[in-house]
Amino acid sequence: MITSLNTGSRKHALRWVGACVRSASIRYNSSDLENRLNKEAIKYGFFKNDNDWENQGVPSNLPFEKRRHSETFGQLVRSDNLAREDKLNDGGINVIAKDLGEDEVTDSPYRNKDGSFKQGENTEESRISPETLLGRIEHRTTELPQEIATAVNNHILRLTEPDRLREKVAILFRDMTREQIQHTPEAPIDCDAHIAAFFLQDYSNVRQVLLELQKRVGAENFKPRHILDIGYGPSTGIVALNEVMGDDFFPETKDSLIVSKNNFEMKKRAKIILSRQVNEIQAEAAHDEVMDEKAVTEELHEEEQEFSEDESDYVGPVDTSQITLKTKLRDTLPSTKSYDLIIVNQALLSRVYNFPRDVDDNLHEILKLLSPGGHLVLVERGNALGFETIARARQVMLRPESYEGENGKIPRPYVKGSTFKPQKNLKGSSNNEGNQNIVSEFEQEIIDKYGEVDENELAMDFENPEEYEVSPLEPETKTKSSFNEPSPSQGLIDYHLSVVAPCPHHGRCPLQLGDPSYYKIPSHKHRFNFCSFDKKVMRPTFTTELKKGKRLALPWDTFAEDGFGLDKIPRKKLKALEGSGRSGSNNIESGSYSYLIMERSNNNEETLKKIETARECKSADYFDHDPTNKWPRIISNPTKVKNNVKLHVCSPSQNIEIWSVPKSMGKQHYYDARKANKGDLWALGRKSVVVKNRVSEGTIEKLDFLAKSQKKKFLKDESKKQWKKLISASESDFVDPSIQLADELATSLEQSKKYKVQGKRAKYSVNPTLYDGK
């Protein structure tokens, strides 16, 4: 314990010492103490207890008192050298910088001579092998741009009453948990609730998938010129693509289809969000050959900065009719356009009971618009229904059951989208020859019986050849420009699709069951897994403010009738929640998603012949030279045990396997395996493998039987409830709830003191308590 000569109380002294610790510097008000510090011979005195301090003993010259050993840990003590150099009370921080020699910098095998990393952006990425780094996906936490977060908060969500918005969002979360599918928002409050509930995670998921597509194709090759986004939200795919490509991204066409019968309200909100991105600002100079792209970008940045400074404090509605964007917001799919990038965000399936018909029909309409060399990105929720939707779309495009013996990622023909459609003979050639022989024998039998048939007998009664002038047909002169001339690739299917990510093969999906209802069977002993991935995203202000209060801050009772069970929460718990926000929460949330990235091959003659040759050889080595297409995908978080790492992967052998990477494989292999994460590609092999069994056909039949039985039981229980209500002897079962509620309100009003007093003042002739309704 120390004090200056001018300290008046113990409390003031303690506050003074605390301030000194925070600022890491000591200042003394006593000039006498400063003079003594400047002397060469310094005597230190310590207070052993609080009584000595109260008796105004001589204080210590050290910043802190030397007390018991247990209380000295972590305290800052200044040395005699600082006191002799008159630097004991210096408020500045002296940093001793060490000049690293050239040998010390170049000793690290992971850094260049200038100290920068040889690969990667941090220490962990610099230490892993180049193959592991190539197979990695983006694991950093996503953050929504501040301009977009502010626009959503100030111009969309703050215009709605918070309690009503939280109620709508809670209903959306409950329905998503029960039905696992998004519904079309139409009313203004529904659009606001949809943005508040789903926009943040949808943006993070789509951005993550687009980043992987950019990495697999190559940043220099990924430059789409015609883009189409399809979804329920405010053009979430376009917003994510603009952030991935940067401010210098000015494609020729950007269309966004907001799926809804009445999408006017969501269009207005999409305009507000998109207008906060630089590459959405309409600028004629962007395509001017005189001005370069850097000058255009700088000009747009200046305009956006001026606009943000003026509008940052404004809270209220925005006149969206005055906003012009590069993106065209559409109501229907175009019929004549083609796109080289199509993003479908949770829009393949509109109704659960229409699975898989909705998926097939919507996918066929979308694939009509994909141009050769283009990419199709499908993103769904990371639940059982979302995975089965993605798996069904994959099955429709690849048809793995028709190519059982094929290995590798050879592009598969999509016959529906091809210009030339091969025709299959319903009968074999031997049967055709037999039929022709039967016809010829029957014809000879008729000729032998009735004689030969001439042309006059075959002519109709009204036909008279003499009345008509018959001229022979002239042979057609074929020109080079004639459309009847066969093309070099005529007879070949010119529409082929292949998987970019996440699947390492084109075979049957080992996790696909074929029906989402199988996952909801409670009486089955197995718990089925599905392929989904996670992404963390930073919560902006509007999300942290939204998830407060009893509806979104407390756990729900999912077995309650309304799905919330808020009426059963004790008052004491609700009172403790008042004013505390959302206790135990953090500013990061994680969303799960399932996805599929498809690529359409070019339909030139050379590419089509390569595909046919690779299919004849049943090997993709002739066509595909990318090594990442043969690497397995990690589908769950690695299990780390002592000196061993187990990776659950989807392998190129079309199976789910558990790969063991022990320490004996090598230091680099073991280090990379410990740093691997869910969603990465694994390139360094394994020492041992365990192949997981697929769901057998017999199990599928049992699941189908149990699903139908469960559906029948549910319908039977509902029918029993209805019949019980109809044949019930209780009068209350036939009373309309609205009438009953009105009667209760009227009774409570009549019994109130205020009603009786006002009745007496009005001099009513009938006493309401004695009135029997006559």
UniProtKB/TrEMBL annotation:
- UniProt lists compositionally biased (Polar residues) regions at 420-437
Region Disordered: start and end of each range?
A: 104-129, 404-437, 467-487
Q: Which InterPro entries match?
A: Mt_RNA_Methyltransferase, Ribosomal_Rsm22-like, RSM22_mit_bud, SAM-dependent_MTases_sf
Cell location: Mitochondrion
One GO CC annotation, please? mitochondrial small ribosomal subunit
The UniProt GO MF terms for this protein read: iron-sulfur cluster binding; metal ion binding; methyltransferase activity; structural constituent of ribosome
Principal place of residence: mitochondrion
Kindly indicate whether the keyword Transit peptide belongs to this entry.
Answer: yes
Entry annotated with the keyword Magnesium: no
Q: According to the lineage, what is the superkingdom?
A: Eukaryota
Q: Which GO terms describe its biological process?
A: translation
Cite the entry's keywords alphabetically.
Answer: Iron, Iron-sulfur, Metal-binding, Mitochondrion, Transit peptide
This molecule's function is given as: Mitochondrial ribosome (mitoribosome) assembly factor. Binds at the interface of the head and body domains of the mitochondrial small ribosomal subunit (mt-SSU), occluding the mRNA channel and preventing compaction of the head domain towards the body. Probable inactive methyltransferase: retains the characteristic folding and ability to bind S-adenosyl-L-methionine, but it probably lost its methyltransferase activity.
Protein name listed in UniProt: Piso0_004275 protein
Gene assigned in the entry: Piso0_004275
